[in-house]
Design a protein that fits this description.
Elements: E1 4-5, H1 7-12, E2 18-22, H2 26-31, E3 38-39, E4 55-59, H3 65-75, E5 80-83, H4 86-95, H5 101-109, H6 113-126, E6 135-139, H7 144-159, E7 165-172, H8 177-189, E8 194-198, H9 201-204, H10 212-230, E9 235-237, H11 242-255, E10 265-267, E11 275-277, H12 285-294, H13 322-336, H14 340-347, E12 358-361, E13 364-367
Parallel strand pairs: 1-5, 2-3, 2-4, 4-5, 6-7, 6-9, 7-8, 9-11
Antiparallel strand pairs: 10-11, 12-13
């Protein structure tokens, strides 16, 4: 039977006497991890390469895979234990009863004024995302993007340049109690007055084999529209950022055979009078991560209950995520051309229809031959 250590017991151990080994995939580790931990995916754990003079504390997402890994290491003669409850439990304990509202708000006004606040307000002004009299449902998933967006809207309200209202909406599609509690405690620590409503989306998509994540996302958006409209809102705000936009452009070209982008705002086709807005449209993900780490914040990467026993949807370093593939591609291209991200974004602002073979508008296909002889 594998030995376990609680997060509280871990804090009592001198750093020189223990080594925290996080066996989640690298994407999850980079998203958030215990300070001082090293990332060694489970399939890369080699007993002979671990230090013999320190206790190996094995950490996964919820403490299940870490038990198996620690047991295998122990049988190989390594002094290893599993972190009970995993990163999720460590996260919950460190967030609980923490009030960092003042520090987080000051960082937005000072440290990240140029990189985040100014880009947020530029998107709002340039794309006319917020108007006088709007009632906006700020949709919070519990991740870094939507939590930052909520704080930015609070700051915008504080400026009081024009009248509008916000509601901070969280939909619980079937989160585990631990995941839901983390979202609640993160919101409380930053003084975000969230309103939670429940749905059974996770159960509805449980047996869907093809594109369950896509279907889940579409269903969640429908529930958010419906709830927001019932609350008297005319807009929902989602936390998609600049990187999401340029990744969507490339994904459409490379995998969909089409040129399209993620728009800064959209009229709802199913909910009359409702709009979707993306206020983080011009904010870089790297700056959001910097804001998160600067303030010592920790958020869930994925709260889906079907990934409870794994680190994420990515298994053993392999991924079916086309978005992740495109993210890696952009990172490689950026090494050669630092302006590649800006150029991808500008490409959909500078479309020359005279050099386009065909395009669609309002469902109608238009071909260059239609006007070629005119």
């Amino acid at each position: 039977m594998c030995k376990e250590i609680t997060p509280q017991e871990l804090e009592l151990l001198p750093e020189a006497e223990r080594l925290i080994i996080d066996i989640r995939d690298r994407v999850s580790f980079e998203y958030g991890h215990i300070p001082g931990a090293v990332n060694i995916p489970q399939n890369e754990l080699v007993p002979d390469k671990l230090p013999a003079d320190r206790l190996a504390v094995i950490c996964c997402k919820v403490g299940q895979l870490s038990r198996e890994a620690a047991e295998v290491l122990s049988e190989s003669g390594v002094n290893a234990v599993s972190l009970a409850g995993g990163y999720l439990e460590w996260l919950r304990i460190n967030i609980e009863k923490r009030d960092i509202t003042a520090d987080v708000e000051l960082s937005i006004r000072k440290k990240f004024k140029k990189s985040i606040w100014c880009r947020f307000t530029k998107a709002i002004n340039e794309y006319k995302l917020v108007n006088s009299g709007d009632r906006i449902a700020v949709c919070i998933s519990g991740g870094k993007d939507s939590m930052l967006m909520a704080k930015l809207f609070q700051e915008l309200k504080r400026h009081d340049k024009f009248p509008f209202e916000v509601r901070f909406l969280v939909m619980d599609p079937g989160y585990s109690p631990a995941n839901r509690r983390l979202i609640e405690e993160n919101a409380a620590s930053m003084s975000i007055p969230i309103e939670i409503f429940e749905s059974d989306i996770f159960e509805s998509v449980f047996n869907i084999e093809k594109n369950p994540c896509y279907i889940c996302a579409r269903m969640r958006r429908g529930y958010l529209y419906s709830r927001a409209k019932a609350l008297g809102c005319n807009k929902i705000a989602l936390g998609h950022h600049f990187d999401d936009v340029i990744e969507t452009i490339l994904m459409g070209m490379l995998y969909g055979g089409q040129v399209q982008t993620m728009m800064p705002k959209l009229h709802s086709t199913n909910f009359e009078g409702m709009e979707l807005i993306r206020p983080l449209y011009l904010v870089r993900e790297a700056d959001i991560k910097h804001w998160r780490d600067y303030n010592g914040l920790h958020f869930l990467q994925c709260a889906c209950k079907f990934t409870e026993t794994c680190s994420s949807c990515d298994q053993n370093g392999q991924t079916d995520s086309k978005r992740l593939e495109v993210k890696h591609l952009i990172a490689e291209l950026k090494k050669v051309n630092p302006q590649v991200e800006k150029n991808i974004f500008r490409s959909v602002e500078n479309v020359n229809l005279s050099t386009i073979i065909a395009y669609k508008q309002h469902g109608e296909v238009r071909n260059f031959l239609d006007t070629y002889d005119e």
